[in-house]
Structure formats: C-alpha cells, structure tokens
Design a protein that fits this description.
Radius of gyration of chain A: 22 Å
CATH topology of the largest domain in chain A: MetI-like fold
Number of helices of chain A: 12
Distance between the termini of chain B: 39 Å
Radius of gyration of chain B: 19 Å
Shape of chain A: globular
Strand content of chain B: 15-25%
Strand order of the largest sheet of chain B: 6-7-8-3-9-10
Number of strands of chain B: 10
Structural class of chain A: mainly alpha
CATH topology of one domain in chain B: Rossmann fold
Helix content of chain B: 25-40%
Largest interface: A-B, 20 and 23 residues
Bound molecules: adenosine-5'-diphosphate, magnesium ion
InterPro entries (chain B): AAA+_ATPase, ABC_transporter-like_ATP-bd, ABC_transporter-like_CS, ABC_transporter_ATP-bind, P-loop_NTPase
CATH superfamily of one domain in chain B: P-loop containing nucleotide triphosphate hydrolases
Shape of chain B: globular
Number of helices of chain B: 9
Order of helices and strands of chain B: EEEHEEEHHHHEHEHEEHH
Oligomer: heterodimer
Largest sheet of chain B: 6 strands, mixed
Keywords (chain B): ATP-binding, Nucleotide-binding, Transport
CATH class of one domain in chain B: Alpha Beta
GO molecular function (chain B): ATP binding; ATP hydrolysis activity
CATH architecture of the largest domain in chain A: Orthogonal Bundle
CATH superfamily of the largest domain in chain A: MetI-like
Distance between the termini of chain A: 8 Å
Family (chain B): Belongs to the ABC transporter superfamily.
Number of domains of chain A: 2
Order of helices and strands of chain A: HHHHHHHHHHHH
Protein name (chain B): ATP-binding cassette domain-containing protein
CATH class of the largest domain in chain A: Mainly Alpha
C-alpha cells in the first residue's frame, strides 16, 4: 500500500465523519443547542484562539504529554534492560507491575496533588504510572526473545555483557518496544487530560471542564476535537521516531505486506 | 603436543539434565585439528554435534575433559576462533546490512579505519558472490545468500580456526554443491583452517582432509579417516575417485557397525 493512498484514505474518512456530524446536526434529531454543527464548533475554536486560552493550554497539555511519554519510554526501556540483566529484579518488579498496572489515573490524582502539587511533577508522575508498562513489558519480552545465535555471535567476538546488551539485544528489541510506545502515547494523553480535569488549574482538560460547566457547548465540542487532534499528532511523532530509530523494521514489515 | 596442532579435544564429556532425567551426550571425545587442515566431524542428527561445537568454541563448559586452543585451555570464547552457526537466518543481525553484518566481526583485526573495514567487507562479500548485495538487509536475501553472508562474517574476524555447524543443512541440493565448493575455495584462498560439522557422509568426505566419525549417543569418536585427495576437489571427478569411494566406504561401514550393535 503506498503512502499517498493511505493519506488519501485518512482524508476521506475524516471528511466522512465531519459530513456525518453535520448531517446529524442539521437533521434536528438532537437539539441544536447541545449538538452544534461544524461551522459553530469552528467558530467556538476561533474565539478561544482569539482570547489566547486555547493555544496557551494546548501547549501546556502537549508539553506535558510529550515530556511524560519520553520519560516513560526511557524509564520503561531502562527497567526492561534491568529485568533482562537481573532475574532477581525481574521477579520483584513483575509483582510490583501487576499491582500498579490496573490502577486508573483518576484514582491517584487527588493524593498525587497533595504530594506533588499542581505543576509538571504531578503530570509526569501520572503519565509514568500509566505509560511505562507498554515499553517495559514489550521490551522485557523482546529482550528475552532475541535469538540465541545473535547473542553467541557477540560472545564469540569477545563483547562484554554490557556491549551485548546495547549493541545486540537492544537494537533487536527496538521494534517491539516501539509497539509499546505507540500504546503508551495514547494512554499518556488520556492520563494528562483526566489529571488536568481533576487538578483544575490549566491545560485542555481543565478548559474542557470549565467550558462545559458554563454551558459553552460549541467550545466544549471544539476542545473535544482538539484532544482527538492531539492523539493523532502524538501518534505521528512516535511514528517519526520509529522511522528514524528502526527504519529497517519499518521497511521489512512494509515490504512483506 | 605436535606444534602444528591448533585445537585439541581431550576426553570431553557432557550430560544434560539431572537425576533420572540425566542424559549423557558426549562420552569422551578426543581428537586434534592441525593448522591448515579441513576437518569434518560427521554424526547422526541429535548425537551432540552442536553440543560438541559449543564446547570447542568456549560457549559452554564440558562436565569433564578439556579443550585446548593453540595450547591454551579454553574456558571462554578465545580470540582467534570463529563460528558459523547452524541457523543462519537467526544469527545475522536484521538491523544491519550485509556489509554492516560483516564489519561487525572485525574486532582486533588488521583493518583499523572505516574505509579499510568497508573495503575488506566488500572484498569478502565479493568472494562469496554477493558483491551487489552489500547494502541489502538479511531479510531481503534468500536463505542461501544469508548463509553466504554468515560465512563472509565468519571469515572477517581473521580467525585461526573457523567452526562451521551444518552450514548447508537447510539449503537445496544444487545450492549445497555450489556452497561446498565455495567454502573449500574460500578456505584455501584465505588460508583458513576449518572444522565442519555435518550429518552428511558424502559431504564430510568431499570437503575434508580428515573425517572424524562420531558414534551414536552417548557419543565418542568412532574413528578418524584421512582423506588423501589433495586440496583441489571437483563435484564430479572427486566423487568418482577410488580414494573418495574408499574413504566413504570406511565411514559408512563404521556407522553401520554401530547400527547393527544397536540392533543386536
Ligand atoms: N540445552 C539442552 N538441554 C537439554 N538437552 C539438550 C540441550 N541441547 C541439546 N540437547 C539434547 O542433546 C542432544 C544433542 O543435541 P545437539 O548437540 O543439538 O545434536 P546435533 O547437533 O548433533 O543434532 C539432543 O538429544 C538434544 O535434544
Ligand atoms: Mg546441531
């Protein structure tokens, strides 16, 4: 499948969704007050841009999500490497991870606010808590699955265990790690917006709550579309990093399709 | 010890498992490889050829006995020893091109600069007939081509001894004959001492100056058969020579005597 075709398919489905939306709005099936058409929503967005509140909060939210995602990825990979190097650590951390993994971010936010305040620390903590598992679990599994012959090849060449880890195992595991990071990107955005809603000071999540409480319907919908756009943007960034760091695998899987 | 001996296996024993599960695999293996020789080790599937090769390479320790490489006891992979593993498709690095895979093996070799390493890699790839494929990734190559990259990588480390673990077991018959000749040609051209492990009696005799015949499990050396056919071999002529037929006959007979022992 060529890239141009994929892009045009994406554009077509976007247009389809917008047209469907507009059709529902015009049909009057839902009161127009609660389900505005596309032009009204665009108008709402324009107003928030004019006042500066949309760009300001959007930068905050994206910055938090991106910082958190990068840190969660690095930490997840580091923990996966540790798990691979030390069976003792692996067993211990596996237990911890099975306890922490099911915790919903919303349940942690109130206590985290007490402990960490309302600044970037809060958001990084929340994102780490929910996003680290993709890179960690995928990484640990992929490191375990590196073909024995590749590791033995390194040993025959006299490579140290650290060199085998970083020059053989890590590159071999990178494609699967990226699958985990892609998942982490989606989760980190959800976590940020939820945390912003609860923390109630700034960010797209906060703005969303404030607009809906003051019944600014078109603005609320516009913000919902912004969160959607953020998801696409983050996915694109992750994909870009994937192409730079594991271009060989992108081409390999692309070629086999 | 003879001063041309490069590798020596002394009473190697190894078992897998413990207690009732304990299964002796190697049961006292003794042999020598002389510098410049091409030695084949032939034995049936599952007799412990890979187990033996891992011990020779220093990748695993025998339970008792000793491997000596250039006179020194082997306790970890020694410098100057290279291995081409049985499963070539798993031993190449998929994130490296053919050229980069070959360059990876150049540690402590004569080539120091990037350009020197690149030139050497291209020379080796050309020698295995992959001149045009230096920039391809392993997954863009056929099985036979991947094995040739693995062989080029084995040569790249400029080892004193190259161990080859059934390098041709997974390729088709025609490719196999071509690859046998290629390996022999490379061994001569790069003055590479080789130890080839195989389950194929014809291949063992065709390739070697000396065939080491393994018994059934628990495995020891049944006999050693010298093959006096000179260094030049030819797929048709060599296989018809009395020397070839005689050596082949002896190997087969040795293997058959084990089989009838089992039956009796
Ligand atoms: N790590 C291991 N643990 C237990 N048994 C093994 C292990 N590796 C090999 N074996 C067994 O040892 C025997 C010899 O294996 P191997 O050396 O691979 O034989 P070959 O290479 O001659 O086919 C086989 O029966 C195999 O199942
Ligand atoms: Mg084997």
């Amino acid at each position: 499948m060529t890239r141009a075709l994929l892009w045009s398919r994406g554009a077509v489905s976007l247009i389809f969704v917008l047209a469907l939306w507009q059709a529902v709005a015009l049909s009057g099936a839902v009161p127009a007050k609660f389900f505005p058409g596309i032009p009204a929503i665009i108008d709402g967005a324009r107003q928030m841009i004019a006042t500066g509140e949309l760009p300001r909060n959007e930068i905050l939210t994206l910055g938090r999500a991106l910082t958190g995602l990068v840190l969660a990825s690095v930490a997840g990979i580091a923990l996966a490497l540790l798990s691979d190097a030390s069976p003792f650590f692996d067993r211990g951390f596996r237990t911890i991870s099975s306890l922490l993994q099911p915790v919903p971010p919303a349940a942690v936010v109130p206590m985290a606010i007490f402990a960490l305040g309302l600044g970037i620390k809060l958001y990084i903590f929340i994102i780490l808590l929910v996003s680290i598992w993709g890179p960690y679990l995928n990484g640990a599994a992929a490191l375990r699955a590196v073909p024995r012959e590749q590791i033995l090849t390194g040993r025959m060449l006299g490579l140290s265990p650290a060199a085998i880890m970083f020059r053989i195992k890590l590159p071999a595991a990178m494609p699967q790690i990226f699958a985990g990071i892609r998942y982490a990107a989606a989760v980190s955005l959800i976590a940020v917006v939820v945390a912003e809603m609860l923390a109630g000071r700034d960010g797209i999540g906060f703005l969303l709550v404030r607009k809906s409480f003051s019944i600014r319907i078109p603005e609320t919908y516009a913000l919902m579309f912004v969160t959607m756009f953020n998801g696409v943007l983050l996915a694109l960034l992750v994909n870009l990093a994937r192409r730079v760091l594991t271009g060989w695998h992108v081409r390999q899987t692309g070629a086999s399709k | 010890m003879n001063d041309t001996t490069i590798l020596e296996a002394v009473d190697l024993r190894k078992a897998y498992g413990h207690g009732l599960q304990r299964m002796p695999i190697l049961d006292g293996i003794d042999f020598r490889v002389r510098k410049g020789d091409f030695v084949s080790v032939v034995g049936p599937s599952g007799c412990g050829k890979t187990t033996l090769l891992m011990a020779l390479a220093g990748l695993s320790q025998p339970d008792t006995g000793e491997v000596r490489f250039r006179g020194q006891p082997v306790t970890q992979p020694p410098q100057g020893l290279a291995v081409v593993f049985q499963d070539y498709s798993r031993s190449l690095f998929p994130w490296k091109t053919a050229r980069e895979n070959v360059i990876f093996a150049m540690r402590d070799t004569a080539q120091k600069t990037r350009q020197e390493r690149r030139d050497r890699a291209d020379e080796l790839l050309a020698a295995v007939g992959l001149k045009e494929f230096a920039q391809k990734y392993p997954w863009q190559l056929s099985g036979g081509m991947q094995q040739r990259v693995a062989i080029a990588r084995g040569l790249a480390s400029e080892s004193d001894l190259l161990l080859l673990d059934e390098p041709l077991a997974a390729v088709d018959a025609q490719t196999r004959a071509d690859m046998q000749d290629l390996i022999l040609e490379l061994a001569q051209r790069f003055d590479q001492t080789c130890l080839l492990v195989t389950h194929d009696v014809d291949e063992a005799v065709y390739m070697a100056d000396k065939v080491i015949v393994l018994s059934r499990r628990p495995t020891s050396v049944a006999t050693e058969i010298p093959v006096d056919l000179g260094k030049r071999r030819d797929q048709l002529a060599t296989r018809e020579q009395p020397g070839f037929l005689h050596a082949r006959h002896e190997v087969m007979e040795r293997i058959r005597s084990y089989r009838s022992q089992m039956a009796g």
